[in-house]
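Researcher: Can you fold this with adenosine-5'-triphosphate in place?
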Amino acid sequence: MAFLETSKLTKRFAGLLAVNHLDLTVNDGEVLGLIGPNGAGKTTVFNLIAGTIPATGGKVIFRGEDISRLPPYQVARRGIIRTFQLNTVFPDLSVTENVVLGSHLQARTGFWGELFKMPATRRSDREIAGRAEQLVASVGLLRQDMDKRQALASNLSYGQVKALTLAIALAADPKLLLLDEPMTGVGVRDVPRLLNLIREINGRGIAILLIEHNMKAAFEVCHRIVVMNHGDKIAEGTPAEVKDNPDVIEAYLTKDGHGA
Amino acid sequence: MTKGTTRNLSAVIAGGIFLLALPLFLKSPYFLHMLIMTMLAIIYAVTLRPLVITGQLSLAHAAFVGIGAYASALLVTRLGISFWLALPMSGLIAALIAVIIGFPALRAKGLFFAIVTFGFTEVARYTYMGVTSLFGGPAGFRGITPPVLAGIQFGGNKVAYYYLMAFLLTITLLAWYSLEKSRFMLTVRAIGKAENLAEAVGVNLTKYKMVTFVFAAFFTGIAGSFYAHYNLYIAPINFSVWQSIAFLTLVVVGGKERFIGPIVGAIFLTFIPEFLHGTGYFQAMLYGGLMVLTVLFMPNGLIGIPGQIAALTSRLRKVRKAGWPFSKPAS
Ligand SMILES: Nc1ncnc2c1ncn2[C@@H]1O[C@H](COP(=O)(O)OP(=O)(O)OP(=O)(O)O)[C@@H](O)[C@H]1O
Ligand SMILES: [Mg+2]
């Protein structure tokens, strides 16, 4: 059964058809690549799935439930966690605080528990702090030679911010992770590390929908790939199938985009 | 316990003892009045800060003071309820009204939220002015009775009011400081910094904004009740949008990043103008001027100044080390 399915998903901005009747299926446990030239509509698809913007038409079904009209936090509660194309972290807060915030959904006590510092709150907070530490380590921000836990997110290097965005997303305990261009701006030497991390995340049973301009990386890590252009799906298949598809080559050649 | 919390705790205890002992050697009613007004301002500012952090520039804060004040005045003078019961009830009434207006208001963001709360404050004020039979109209509500506690008459007894206010302030600060160190406030700060990311990891923005809004209204309503039974007279003009703007000034000028910020702002902007025998004009000029200076030159308010000085001196030191003439500005 399809894990995530969009049917006839459509978004129109004024005169522009950013996403046009898109049918997309992410299978359970799969890494699905979503590629296409600049302005193809990829990020808009993320925004529609995550509930950030309302769709003009069509549906998003996640594990059998229609989530098309849910607000972002409700989509997150069902296990779909997205990252943003522009590295988004909580600036002026520490790395640990950032990851603790990602664990928002794991917290088991509310306002009154926190106001009166109930034992259950303290326990829950301790658990979350422990998990946050593991996550910071798992994305490489806490190693023997480097401890970034107390560093402010705004003082991290570009690659470290990338790692932090992943840690925040993982802290939210996703079932489906939507990654918007995780390789962009990452140094050549760090790309294999990031690919390994993505494989490892996927190995834990988390399905991934990956937008990526780095074709080599995308072909390497994705099980299947969907190609978009001008809001339309123009190809779909295994990396090998997509690579030789004439429509795909055409789309990339007529654009002065990246990759190809 | 960490070193920081021990230090904070001892500072709080020292401050508490100082405030408790103050009336023993400072008996001037005028001075006590100033202290009471300053403590009230601290309550307004501390409760408003989380809203400012999330970017909800509420112009309804003064309205909730007014709701607490009028509710309390009515409960005591018309229904004969004891002030000691009316005090918490006023907080609850303000909180309830905050829930009702919060639903539509919190759908709006930034400037729109400011406009909606502006409208609400004006509607409340015109209601007091229009419904003369209940609220006394533009001339105000007279004949509010001072509290009595175990034979202690508060009327004309500034020391008694001082201790009551100190008690209310302590409760307010304890509650909000407890939140300050919690995941709740961490989330509130996160909403202020990256709302879209907070939402993407499952934060219900409306709920957080609602809780800060309603919780603030509760404490503000209680402060309003105190004010009514301290001043013994309230008028619509006391609870105008201008008053709300003054409260926002306390937070912005003091600095919203830290808990102490609005406290510093409230002391600086309430105590000092009163101390200088400030007239209305002087006060308005001071508030306006400081607001402009803060926005232009002190992004973190008064509490940010030490950090700014430190940054400046370290830059100057670097400039000197590099051997540039001192008068030549660093690029
Ligand atoms: N909020 C918006 N309002 C108006 N137009 C928008 C909006 N968001 C996106 N668009 C337009 O929709 C089209 C698709 O944008 P989108 O960001 O989805 O592309 P993308 O495939 O992610 O591109 P890139 O690879 O450059 O990130 C673009 O033409 C863009 O200008
Ligand atoms: Mg994009």
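Model: Folded with adenosine-5'-triphosphate in place. The longest helix of chain B spans residues 205-231.
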